[in-house]
Amino acid sequence: MFDPSKLELLIGPAPDAQRHVLEKLVEELRAALPAMQQACQENQWQVVQNYAHKYRGTSAVVGASSCAEVLGLLEHAIIVSETQPVPRLLASLNEAIAGLEDAVSAHLKSLDRNVE
Fold first, then answer.
1. Residue 90: CB partners within 8 Å, gap ≥ 6?
2. Which residues carry this modification: Phosphohistidine (predicted)?
3. Which of 5, 38, 60, 103 is the most exposed place for a label (fewest CB within 10 A)?
4. Are 33 and 74 in contact (CB under 8 A)?
5. Is the pLDDT of residue 115 over 70?
6. d(Cα 44, Cα 101) in Å, to the nearest integer?
7. DSSP per residue over the chain, as a string?
8. Close Cβ partners of 109 (under 8 Å, ≥ 6 residues apart)
């Protein structure tokens, strides 16, 4: 679901830097999801694919593997013109984002405890 060691390798152990990156990613994913759902309803598959591609890479790099996996499946479905599972995948993405939010919250609390 979330592997904080990937983020630490990327930006180091600084809690403030990790907090900034993780909060920004969750915020952007939460903002992108309704836009992706709207694009899906309007059959704007390239828009969905662009979001999926952008956030798949970002999610993978910071260790948000569940989000990266679902985003990769979304991107692939559109590339191969199999758009039927896209609404289900968007629902799965919503769940993955919720799981990421919980994992990020726990991780940030542990960072705060280690700083004290």
1. 33, 36, 37, 40, 74
2. 53
3. 5
4. no
5. no
6. 28
7. ---HHHHHHHH-S-HHHHHHHHHHHHHHHHHHHHHHHHHHHTT-HHHHHHHHHHHHHHHHHHT-HHHHHHHHHHHHHHHTT--TTHHHHHHHHHHHHHHHHHHHHHHHHHHHHHH-
8. none
How many Å separate Cα 89 from the centre of its chain?
A: 13
Angle formed at CA 46 by CA 1 and CA 54, multiple of 5 degrees: 35
In whole angstroms, give the CA distance from residue 113 to residue 46. 43
Q: Measure the CA angle with vertex 22, ends 20 and 27; round to 5°.
A: 95
Output the pTM of the full model. Answer: 0.91
